[in-house]
Amino acid sequence: MTSSDQQLVRRALKGEERAFEELVRRYQKPIVNFIARMVGNYDLALDLSQDVFVKAFVALRTYNEGFKFGSWIFKIASNTVIDHLRKASPAISSLDKPVATEDDEIQMDLASTALIPDEELEQTETRSILVQLIRQLPEAYRHMIVLRHINELSYEEMAEITDLPLGTVKNRTFRAREMMRHMIEKLEGKGVRISSRG
Amino acid sequence: MLRCDEIDLSAYHDRALDESELRKIDIHLQYCSTCLRRYGQEVMLISSLSEIPPIDPPRHFIPHLMYRVRQQIYSQIIPAEERKFSLLTAGYGLALLTLVVFLGGLQKTFFDATLGWAQLPLKSVLALLRTTNTVTESGSQLLSASGPMSLLLVLSATLVAGFALIKLLTHYERLMLEDVRLRIRRGGNDKTL
Questions:
Q1: CB B45 within 8 Å of CB B9
Q2: Distance, CA of A20 to CA of A14 (rounded, Å)
Q3: What is the spatial distance between Cα B38 and Cα B4, in angstroms, rounded to a whole number?
Q4: Which of B81, B182, B71, B56 is nearest to A54 (CA)?
Q5: CB of B48 within 8 A of CB of A196?
Q6: Are A181 and B38 in contact (CB under 8 A)?
Q7: CB–CB of B10 and A36 under 8 A?
Q8: B74 to chain A: nearest residue by CA?
Q9: Whether B66 and A127 lie within 8 Å, measured CB to CB
Q10: DSSP strand E in A87-194: where?
Q11: Is the peptide bond before B148 cis (omega within 30 degrees of 0)?
């Protein structure tokens, strides 16, 4: 039978390393994805994700079973990323980082796509563009888009993680999507086609 | 009648508006092609975002992390053990010192009469203590006068000293064992890194 997160926390607190390892196994992927989309750099995301789990281990005694473990660990991840972004500002260097020019136009350097079939190419390009657009959003809005649309969390969970009122979370998410739509409009004006499979 | 700039298409998409507002936007979208196109973009955006493929952490992520967690355990346990260790050393050291002081005070009465064999090492210690003024003549006289009480004190102090020695050895062993366990674990994980 699968143990609940709370049971695993209790076992980990009694010194059972395997229990903590199982918690990491459950949450490594969402945490790495969240951080990677926030910082836009895979290696850095792995390092920060490791920091998140070490912090969680150290603070495990402070975890309140009244809350979802997932929300708790996301809260740690969220704070870790924000701290990092604030320290690392103005920007984290990344080889494929897009450049926003002075007149707010977006330059995209898409990966080589010579051998990819047309339809798949379109999908790959769309995803690649969206990932870069997410990276261009201001931190507070990127935070919302990633939590909502990459990690697929509910607005209630997002409010718990970010310590923001539910209304603010919704407004910021809507505003972030509006910003992305404007960016897409600009790109489409330049002839870039963005489509979804659905 | 709604103006285009009054419409929040994201909130509309998520049905995060009250019924009357939703109905007004429904009507607006029936005749406004600009907003309808924007709404199409909103739907496409949300759908595309859900198609972004997830990133897989590498296979070494967990072994590497658990190595760091063990380092964390190590850094938490050892200083705590060391604190305990130094407190015990201080406490038991005090008990040992008390024993030596009592023995110094009693040596003229009890040890001269019963434990002649113990005189040589004790006298050496007492000589050292006297040169450093740790044991005074008046203290020796007071202890000599108390007789059986002194004997009881000596026995108690001997017990405390014995207990202290055992505890010190046990703590030292625990520290060493913890160190060995961590080295073994770390060695095992280093191979996977």
A1: no
A2: 10
A3: 10
A4: B71
A5: yes
A6: yes
A7: no
A8: A58
A9: no
A10: 99-100, 106-107
A11: no
**Residue A90: strand, helix, or coil:** coil
What is the pTM (predicted TM-score) of this model?
A: 0.65
What tens-digit pLDDT sequence spans chain B (193 residues)?
788 888 888 889 988 889 999 999 999 999 999 999 889 989 999 999 998 989 999 999 999 999 888 887 777 666 666 666 666 777 777 777 766 666 665 555 555 555 555 555 556 666 666 666 555 555 555 445 445 565 666 677 777 777 777 777 777 666 666 665 555 454 444 332 2
CB burial string B78-111: b at 16+ within 10 A, e below: eeebeeebeeeeeebeebeeebbbbbbbbbebbb
Q: What residues have CB less than 8 Å from A176, skipping those under 6 apart? A: A137, A141, A142, A144, A145
What sign does the CA torsion over A22, A24, A30, A33 have?
negative
Tell me the chain B residues in contact with residue A127 when contact means C-beta distances shorter than 8 Å. 48, 51-53
- Output the six-digit token pair for A170: 């919704």
H-helix or E-strand containing B35?
Answer: helix B33-50
Q: What is the 8-class DSSP label of residue A64?
A: -
- Among B55, B59, B181, B189, the strongest candidate for a mutation testing the A interface, having the largest count of A CBs within 10 A, is B55
User: How many other C-beta atoms are found inside a 10 Å radius of the C-beta of residue B53?
Assistant: 10
